[in-house]
Amino acid sequence: MRDIAVVAYHQSDCLASAGASNEVELIMPVLRQVFDQVGLHNAQDVDFVCSGSCDYLQGAAFAFVAGVDALGAVPPIRESHVEMDAAWALYESILKIRMGHADSALIYGFAKSSPGELPIVLSQQLDPYYLAPLWVDTVSLAALQARLMLDKGAITEADMAAVVARSRRNALGNPRAQLAGEVSVEELLAEETYVSPLRRHDCCPVSDGAAAMIIATVEQAERWGKPYARITGIDHRIESHNLGLRDLCDSVSTRRAAAAAGVADGAVDVAELYAPFSHQEIILSRALALGESTAINPSGGVLAGNLMMASGLSRVGEVFRRIVEGEAGRGVAHATSGPCLQHNLVAVLEAA
Amino acid sequence: MSPADPLTQDFELGFTYTRSTGPVVGRFLTGLRERRIEGVRASDGRVIVPPMEYDPDTAAALEDFVEVGQEGELVSWCWVSEPRAAHPFERPFAWGMIRLDGADVPMVHCIAADSEQDLVTGARVRASWVDEPRGHISDIRCFELVEGGAS
């Protein structure tokens, strides 16, 4: 099987509102950044392009097609799209390269979530007969999950606050973050609940922005002569859409994806987890069997800024960045989709 | 038309067709119209409410319908102190996971209560119906606490 290398990555700032900028204007700067990192001119210089976005966020069918304007698709390019986080666009691109249909790929994800009411927009992705008509929002569903864990004694509210405090502190070193600062567990616990038992800080913020990545075969990466990290394992699994059937205190799909991706085959220096809610980072850390020796979400993770449809790709990019900068030798990236961690992707990256 | 008149066109964002809900979802929704709550028995014997069309483990089509109770136990809940415009209540309320009597799998619905302090995991709740059910999940207006029913 052909080995895959991550060669370039860039993410925009996480903005509470991108103002009048449209999606193309969010995408183009991150594309320029990754082209420049490799020394490419434009999308004509890669074999395949795949993007991740969500038409519900733009409120129009086939809205993702407009994103292609950022590519300059003339002469024609080979292009695809997933109605998912761009981490899954990365997955499709890896398959494309492994099948021998491409040697390189550009991946990007983008969303402008601020104009709508994100938790309500996402409610329309739920079961269309039993849940969507109730307009049960994603924050509330996560709160039901947190209560199950608290009642069971699997976590405490202080555990959740500790996740937030670490995220805010780590985000001080991340210029792209939206929320950063020194805050104590005691200060966080003194805040009022929002959707009880969740406090506002237990929930990721709504952010606008984009992320992009370039991957290639290891041979192509060597020809480009740029530092790279290898993706040595990647897998994704999904659980039932019926929340009542799932063990919401665990992430069975993450465990399975981690086993298939080979997470346990070596030390994990760094892990970037897509946990939109504080308690979910604890679920994921346990499902991935991460210990004291792993730096979890050194970027601050998505509690410090959540680019819908791009944050999963950014988790992979953050691990890549730390490997090529020599901070880590081996790391795990995780992406999620759906309510209460329904669908999970796990990737393992290693130094070249 | 003067040059200053903007061109306007009414636009309704939605599906302009109707579709059948099928023998499983349709049966459940039809039951609601008669204030009846039905689940389906899965291959391992668990009763799933609302019913699923296919077995979660074997993927076999499910058709063993079971009527369940109108009361049940609160498995989990969250308190919405600031309801959103789309939410079913304008005043603070709760979302809950409710395991109805005779069911094994909890369902998600809304819960009316006066305050967060009135709710506790394990509390007994009962379905409250709208005056004119029409075969829709919101025919169950909400669940309400059963007086003295904390288990």
Which keywords apply here?
heterodimer, A: alpha/beta, Peroxisomal Thiolase, Chain A, domain 1, 10-stranded mixed β-sheet, 12 strands, B: 151 residues, 5-stranded mixed β-barrel, 3-stranded antiparallel β-sheet, Lipid-transfer protein (chain A), acetyl-CoA C-acyltransferase activity (chain A), Thiolase (chain A), Thiolase-like (chain A), Thioester_dehydratase-like (chain B)
Mean pLDDT of chain A: 97
Number of strands of chain A: 12
Net shape of chain A: globular
The main β sheet of chain B shows up as: 5 strands, mixed, barrel
Strand content of chain B: 25-35%
The low-pLDDT segments of chain B are none
Residue runs with pLDDT of under 50 for 5 or more positions of chain A: none
CATH class of the largest domain in chain A: Alpha Beta
Spatial ordering of strands, largest sheet of chain B: 4-5-6-8-7
What is the molecular shape of chain B?
globular
Strand and helix order of chain B: HEEEEEEEE
Helical/strand content category of chain A? alpha/beta
Structurally, the number of domains of chain B stands at 1
CATH topology of the largest domain in chain A, anyone? Peroxisomal Thiolase, Chain A, domain 1
Structural overview:
The complex is a heterodimer of chains A (about 350) and B (about 150). Chain A has about 350 residues and is of the alpha/beta class. Chain A folds into two domains: about 5-115 and about 205-230, Peroxisomal Thiolase, Chain A, domain 1 (3-Layer(aba) Sandwich), CATH 3.40.47; about 120-195 and about 230-350, 3-Layer(aba) Sandwich (Peroxisomal Thiolase, Chain A, domain 1), CATH 3.40.47. Chain A is built from twelve helices and twelve strands. In chain A, strands 3-2-4-7-1-8-12-11-9-10 form a ten-stranded mixed β-sheet, with helices on both faces. In chain A, helix 4 packs across helix 12 and helix 7 (about 155-170) packs across helix 11. Chain A starts with a strand and ends with a strand. Chain B is mostly beta strands and about 150 residues long. Chain B has one domain (about 20-145). Chain B has a five-stranded mixed β-barrel with strand order 4-5-6-8-7. Chain B has a three-stranded antiparallel β-sheet with strand order 2-1-3. In chain B, a hairpin with a 6-residue loop joins strand 5 (about 95-100) and strand 6 (about 105-110). The radius of gyration of chain B is 20 Å and the shape is globular. At the A-B interface, helix 5, helix 6 and strand 5 of A face strand 4, strand 5 and strand 6 of B.
